[in-house]
Amino acid sequence: MFRRYPRPFIVYRNRHGRRCYANAAFSYNSKVRAFPFAFSKDDAITHVAPAASSLTVFKGFISSVCAKYFPASGFKPIQPDRIQAIYYPAWIVDAEVEAKVWLSPQDSESSQQHNFTVDFTNSYVPGKLQQGCPFDLLGRLAFRDENMSPEQAVPFSQSLTKQHGSDILCLPYTTSPFSLLDKARNLSFKQATIHDGVRFDPSSVKPNLFAAYPVLMPLYIAQYETVAPFRNTFVIQAHSKPGRFFMQTISDDPEKNIMAKLEEHIGYDYLFLGGNPSSFVNPRVLSPLYDEVASSTLESWLNDQITARGATEMLSSGKAIDMEDPRVRQWIGDELRWVRRWIESGEDLLRIKDTVKKISSVGVDLTETSRRAGPGESPDVQKVVSLAAAGLEEFSKAQRSRQEAAEKARATFTPVWWREWEDSQKLKS
Prior knowledge:
8 helices; 2 domains; about 35% helix; single chain; 14 strands; alpha+beta
């Protein structure tokens, strides 16, 4: 028979006796959506049992393996000392942001300034920090995957506080994704260096659109005692069938941090099974024209900034989270389609603008060629140059008409709530 856990699960109590979590009834704003738990606490225990056993000197290893892979065998998995189902608050973000970026060619001391536009569709921001706790892993993991969809989430209600026979610990939102913009603007130029020869102007960071969707991620947190002074803590994602989970060893003695040594070898201070850790952001540099290398470099830099120990504290705004902010939207299909259609229309518009810019450059070259040809040049050369200039002018007019139409189309896609928020900011300034 599985062990029962009647008392609330406290993930960790630090040396000063302060709790990292508190089990209290909680109510969320009506905009908040939640993924229901897809399986029970017992299923979670069985799922991680072989890994948990291997980290506790292989205690109950055979029975744990048999319980997972041969459920009809009657074997029981190793049991955690504590386990708790929690709703972890998170934000899904759709945004388009622009900034001035300086690019320095290799082996050159000069730099060129460009206006970069970046698409941050389907990004992830943690909604709660575990400040003062050795176990800060929840704020450094992105609990999203490509198979998650708005159709799977439901509006939060009190009926979700008990699922599969377990009381769900609901954690409050303590961070706002909007504070990221303020933090970015306050970076020093040194901190704003993305790569050798690539840095952005913090003061130029400007959102063209920013939508944040509050979504609750279902997790099981299990803790297994092992050789003192260590504890093994497991984080199990529970939005679909048992799959990805994460493991971290915590010590009461900060000087005995074995995970730091692990990080030196694999780049993480935790272990994971069932899939690689998800990226927080998947940026696409739209302008200058979509650049895969630049997008990849930016993604790597941003994820490094967010996942570094203590880095998520930059998300703390120090203010109450205003869920009535019009930029906070429900994570539902209609909202996403409208916002993402606007972002996609911007990509088309930027592509047309780039074409118009290149045409203008070619036109300047043709004008210079025509001037150099002069009246002494053969009629054939003059005719070719004239025809080329005329054709280019017609093509340029057509592209400018396309640009005008694309700008009008994008204006019709702009969400009403974003216009209202921009107008409110103008009144404040």
